[in-house]
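Q: Structure for this?
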Amino acid sequence: MSVLVIADHDLGQLSPATARVVHAVSTLGPIDLLVVAENPAPIAAAAAQLAGVSRVLTASGSPVADSLETLLSTLAVRYHYVVASAGSGGKDVMPRLAAKLDIMPVTDVVEVLGPNRFTRPIYAGNALQTVTDNQAKHVLTIRASAFRAAATGNAAPIETIDTSVVSVARLIAAHRTQSDTPDLATAQIVVGGGVALGSAENFQLIEQLAKKLGAAIGATRAAVDAGYAPNDWQVGQTGKIIAPDLYIAIGISGALQHLAGIQGAKKIVAINTDPEAPLVKLADVALIGDLFEIIPQLLSELDKTGVKR
Amino acid sequence: MKILVAIKRVVDHNVRIRVRPDGSGVETTGVRMSMNPFCKHAVEAAVQLSEAGHGDEIVIVSIGPKTANDVILTALAMGAHRGILVETDADLETLAIAKLLAKVVEEENPDIVLLGKQAVDDDSNHTGQMLAALTNRPQATFASEIKVIGAELEVTREIDSGRETIAIPLPAVVTADLRLNTPRNAALPMVMKARSKPLAVRPAAEFGVDLTPRLIIDKVSPPAERAAGKTLGSTTELAAYIAAEVSQMEAL
Ligand SMILES: Cc1cc2nc3c(=O)[nH]c(=O)nc-3n(C[C@H](O)[C@H](O)[C@H](O)COP(=O)(O)OP(=O)(O)OC[C@H]3O[C@@H](n4cnc5c(N)ncnc54)[C@H](O)[C@@H]3O)c2cc1C
């Protein structure tokens, strides 16, 4: 059973999600990894190193939903599975591809139970649905945070496919968040802040703590809406789904839409003035108090412990 | 310009759902239902486009049981002009929904189709993209801003790396994210007026689409419960806890 995985990438770099997707579907069959980018070569070179990849295919062009759909529907005839990460790119194109192929996709897969059985969350993760997919072909998106990354050290051959990838959509502007913190969706530690921070300036307290711990920064939708944090930091049902080893939630109430994004966290720490906040009740460890007192103290206490990342 | 908005009636987003003990699904009887929040943003976007002179007619379509009339009425009260209920009691997959919507698009031939980016029940995030494919229209998903510029739409999209603005030719399909706007609450006179707006009820069977599900739902189960945690007494204790966790991580 052959698998085609579409590589996720940004700014010429293979995204960490791809290695996790490859690992997630490595039991399903030999994997071809497709890289579609304006300049695919450096991304393909990184992709070829992932264990489980038998071949990397590259095509030049911008990976926009309509153009990708055309390319993928041609390629799909050769594969039993067409797979992407459940990030914004995969969410954009895979249902489109599925409809073109007359296939019902299985998306946001968090567990691969067999060649045609998958588990996916519904109702913001408050229920898990296990499905059997007996269709001739499977169109899947994988929730990268639910899987470990494939190892590296492979040297899969790279082949160029000659095709034109042209979209009717024109990119007018891209606004990227400048930050040297790790990728939120795959980070080992995430420090998240809510509206309690009160301003974009105060939100820098979150950034300071994240920096000290080598952590990614998360935010609630309310904090993003208030303009304290950029939208790509939003964690939750409609933001990013994270599964860090440690999630430190500061001034976050724990609305169910936020909890939807952090169910995979191994350990949760909550700092909140309200002992009744849902996130405090759910946390492995909670500290009740004012974040404006606690964070500065915590920064210096952490220095004393000599913690370093 | 004509705008078609597809909306879904779902378990209200504030309700804490309960998985049925027999694993057959999520309890929906006697549970408060309402318009999917993302759909509400799509309706609001259509009304705002119309108010800005870009929409002569806003048509609302919902697929579901008779009771889905109530969310159509809500949309009509927000300012849409007429509604279509494609009536079915079956639980349809997104592919079947998209096929039915494609038939409605064929009949209505709207310039813009607006949908919510996902429904808070199945969380699929499929329908707009599928509809765009089936009707061969360009798409702009996860929209947080929409501008009509001539025969094009300029749409700002919320994506993993931040935001991007794209231009797509009309006719097109757009799916709404939450930051697109703030949906209005219809005033009572509008609610009263909504009742006199046209609402066509059409049985799903009328559209000649094969609605048979493709996936077999084996079971629905609740997520694993987390063990109860503890409350610490001081920042020093918290620092020690974090340091211990971090050092364990590095040991991996
Ligand atoms: C359809 C839909 C989708 C949504 N998707 C998401 C999503 O993806 N992600 C998301 O996060 N939200 C989402 N939301 C919003 C969600 O419902 C909540 O509104 C939001 O998560 C609340 O954010 P918050 O915790 O920052 O704010 P609040 O709920 O206002 O909580 C603030 C918390 O800070 C505490 N606090 C206040 N002052 C201090 C202080 N000085 N020190 C310490 N603690 C303090 C308070 O006790 C409180 O617990 C969604 C909502 C809807 C309707």
